[in-house]
Amino acid sequence: MNTLQWILAGFIAYSLLAALLRARGVLPEYIRVQGPLMTVHTRRGRELLDKLASPKRFWRAWSNIGLGVALVIMVGSFVLLVYQAVFIVSNPPAPTQVNQPQNFLVIPGVNDFLPLSVAPEILFGLLVGLVVHEGGHGVLSRVEGIDVESMGVVLLTILPVGAFVEPSEESQRRAERGGKSRMFAAGVTNNFAVTVVAFALLFGPVIGSISVAPGVAVSGAYSGSPADVAGISSGDRVTAIEGTPVNTTQELDAALLSADDQTVTVELDGERTVSVTRELVVAGSVSGNPANLTVESGGDPLRVTAVNGTPVSTQAEFEAAVGDSRFVRLDTSVGERTIPVGAYITNIAKNESLFNAVGTTDPLIITALDGARITSSTDLQEALDRTEPTQTVPVEVYRNGSFQTYDVTLGENPQDGNGFLGVNIFPGTSGLLLTDFGTQEYPAGTYLSLLGGDGGDGSSGVANGLTGSPLQLVYVSLLLPLASVVLGIPNFPGFTGDIINFYQVGGPLGFLGGGVFLLANLLFWTAWINLQLGLFNCIPGYPLDGGRILRTAAEAVVSRLPVDDPHTVVRTITTSIGLTMLASLLLMIFGPTVLGG
């Protein structure tokens, strides 16, 4: 069985055992069990709530603000969820990792987006969120004269996952509708307040105390590549090649190109050195590439040993052997291949620059742009960096078995303002990712920029296009755990494990040393989880706070209408909206798999 199945089996066994103990009267009255959840009730602590509730004018004003925010979010969430549901039904998207069953469980290590490495920080954020949420209900209950029957903690089997306050149902019925609405809104108000404070601290002094460490961060090495053979792996930083410092992938590539010897000395982490004997390998491939080569995960690496009969072992030797040739013969470890050499375009966006010239979205190979010979994706990007929007340039492409030249009027690249073709480019040459080194870069600078820090030269265009105002920073931070799905970069779990080696501490909180990373993780996940709790509880469906506020608002409106049975009307309104929200949520979660799978 996989991990998810073991966890579900444990929940079932725990639930059955708890039910048996309850049936036999073994469990005391103050312990209640419902499935894998256990609640421990106590009447102590009510005096503390009374003391906290003493500044009643402040708490009423505070909750009035929260109630207004909650109402706006309630309306917005209803419209958004219904719109998404209609869109999914009319145009079902393909299922993604988000739609996998295990990703609906908020369990670190089981949920793909909640890594086990930050389970303590996630649990801390969840506990903070639930305590301030339920504490808000408790304080406002006493402010509005609503009795509290009990308080306590919630356990998932034996793990504490939250707290609760249990207001008296009779007192709630006697309370004014405005008071009840403020009490229901108090929890989400506190969650949003914690989110604001946590993000303010994170984006301010904490991220300001973190910078990118020197060197090129390594997320891994391609299997069987020279770097892999030399022992370079995830968590390393390449700080120099043959004594030349490198801080970006471009500098790393340039240093490797300028190194004459096949074997190069590589400095890692500024401390140790390894020798890397370079050979040209195919680290990746795109389906349909002209060489008809496929790189299989875990298999032996494909090697390129000669170009047009000239032995090659490095990228520089490959480019020299290709020269101005449009076609070359490759000697590989799986046989000889003859291919056109250029930058492989996997997709052409409709109504963008290249599409307007060639009239197709099918893959093709660009072999020249504005007079410059293009042999790889790097050549194409460098050529585009020398162009400007609205500039018309000749572009030579290989398609349908022949070379053709088109005059293309370039658009504007939204990330750097240079000329733009509107295409997706496969890294490497002719659909083959060729490398004589083999490391994969970890986007350390990009993540730091997305969190409001200084990513330095390692920050990518993704960060430049998304960061700006504080609201943008909050929005982007919420996406980071889902970055692989939304932003096209690896998910960011926080500053953990090998990732810490890619950063260094200084600035206002430098005296904390490595504690800055722990503080950043606590603030990040506390803010993330509290905002999720606040937004989720604003959904206008019972028994969520949004559903309770909806019922109170419906009662207030219906009480002013000339109807014979106001309770039935209120029940019809709240049930209809609740069922609509439930159906919309189910469609968002399961619709892509059921309808678009």
Describe this protein's structure.
This protein is of the alpha+beta class and 597 residues long. The two termini are 25 Å apart. The model has no long low-confidence stretch (mean pLDDT 85). The longest helix is centred in the N-terminal third of the chain and has 35 residues, at 56-90. Among the domains are: 36-203 and 526-596, no CATH class; 281-436, Roll (Pdz3 Domain). It contains 18 helices and 26 strands. It holds the Pfam family Peptidase_M50.
Which value, in Å, is the CA radius of gyration? 30 Å
Unreliable sequence segments: none
Q: What is the β-strand count? A: 26
Q: Helical residue percent?
A: 40-55%
The general outline is: elongated
Global mean pLDDT:
85
Q: How big a fraction of the residues is strand?
A: 15-25%
User: How far from one another are the termini?
Assistant: 25 Å
Largest sheet: 6 strands, antiparallel
Number of helices: 18
Secondary structure class reads alpha+beta
